[in-house]
Design goal:
It contains 13 helices and 14 strands. The chain is α/β, with parallel strands linked by helices. It folds into two domains: 233 residues, CofD-like domains (Rossmann fold); 89 residues, no CATH class. The chain has a seven-stranded parallel beta sheet with strand order 3-2-1-7-8-10-12, with helices on both faces. Strands 5-4-6 form a three-stranded antiparallel beta sheet. Strands 9-11 form a two-stranded antiparallel sheet. A hairpin with a 6-residue loop joins β13 and β14. InterPro entries: CofD, CofD-like_dom_sf, Gluconeogen_factor.
Length: 342
């Protein structure tokens, strides 16, 4: 640059992509932990209709939102030392009639709910204590009851009862403690509307993903958000929920409950699964690999991204969080670019 010439340099700092992940179950923390490593601005919206295990027992005793999925999500996004996270996750093996099987974190969440009067505030306080990188929001401020109508026209209530019948589910809906339509809270709706990517799954289709979308305002936000709506398709079919389902059938069920083709992109595993690594007890819940039906997905105006998305090192098959997170971030940046050009 010649002497005496001045140049104005504009430095534009790009913001982190805003990613909202909606769901519950064991697959959600895997994705969240990987997204955290991708430097995303993460909001996790967590299912509150679980009524089994420690969460169900606590819910029945003190009528609190089931804390198990919230606990696992908090740990996945926490910057605490591993030893402190292990304490939060510790599950009592005592034969005591109450503490047996309960995780310490579940009890802490229940206590904070009682102290602050609602689960949303309790989780925000605990998020600060646990140095959570991101936001963790319960889908609703109150425990919800899951209802299902089956293909044969019968109806059942409660997650455990519904999946235990091992019947084909036609549709599900949720109600609050007064058997009314449940409500979400404004920060949940704002996060969805401001997101670059809204991610559904992975997780149980009818009991971890759809219950959130059946909260009226939350489902409306997913329909109206300018974000890329992404579905991480399950790797295995699940007893009591998705026997013999293809990937396109998973997406079709979500779209049907939302009332239109709202899934923009599906992340689908294309790798072969080694079924010989499964133990007989694994078949109590998981059945067969989800089959691919790319034509069926495209017929729903759904873009398909397929890859070897599996991690089977431990025998059971999980999503490879790093690969999935990279695809989500790429899609989020695409959405950010579209917004700038509009």
């Amino acid at each position: 640059m010649p002497y005496g010439e001045t140049r104005i340099v504009r430095v534009i700092k790009a913001r982190r992509p805003r990613v909202v992940v909606i769901g519950g179950g064991t697959g959600l923390p895997v994705i969240l932990n990987a997204l955290k490593d991708q430097n995303a601005e993460i909001t996790a919206i967590v299912t509150v209709s679980d009524d089994g295990g420690s969460s169900g027992s606590i819910r029945n005793f003190i009528n609190v939102v089931p804390p198990g999925d919230i606990r696992n999500v908090l740990v996945s996004l926490s910057d605490l030392p591993q030893e402190e996270k292990d304490i939060f996750q510790y599950r009592f093996d005592s034969k005591d009639s109450f503490f047996s099987g309960h995780a310490i974190g579940n009890l802490i969440i229940a206590a904070l709910n009682e102290m602050h009067g609602n689960i949303f505030e309790a989780v925000q306080v605990l998020s600060k204590m646990m140095k959570v990188d991101g936001q963790v929001f319960p889908a609703s401020n109150e425990p919800l009851t899951l209802h299902a109508e089956f293909a044969d026209g019968t109806v059942e209530h409660g997650e455990t009862e519904i999946t235990g019948l091992d019947k084909r589910i036609k549709r599900i809906w949720v109600t609050d403690a007064n058997n009314q339509e449940p409500r979400s809270v404004l920060p949940v709706l704002a996060a969805i509307m401001q997101a670059d990517a809204v991610v559904l799954g992975p997780g149980s289709l009818f009991t971890s993903i759809l219950p959130n979308l059946m909260i009226p305002k939350l489902g409306e936000a997913v329909r109206e958000t300018p974000a890329e709506v992404i579905y991480i398709c399950n790797i295995m079919t699940q007893r009591g929920e998705t026997e013999h389902f293809s990937d396109s059938e998973h997406v079709a069920v979500i779209n049907r409950h939302l009332g239109g083709n709202y899934i923009n992109t599906a992340l689908v595993n294309g790798a072969k699964i080694d079924m010989s690594k499964f133990h007989p007890e694994d078949y109590d819940e998981y059945l067969d690999p989800v089959t691919n039906d790319f034509a069926g997905l495209q017929a729903q105006n759904c873009r398909v991204i397929t890859d070897d998305f599996i991690d089977q090192r431990s025998g059971l098959v999980f999503h490879d969080g790093k690969k999935v997170a990279k695809e989500i971030i790429n899609l989020a940046f695409e959405a950010m670019s579209r917004k700038r050009n509009e």
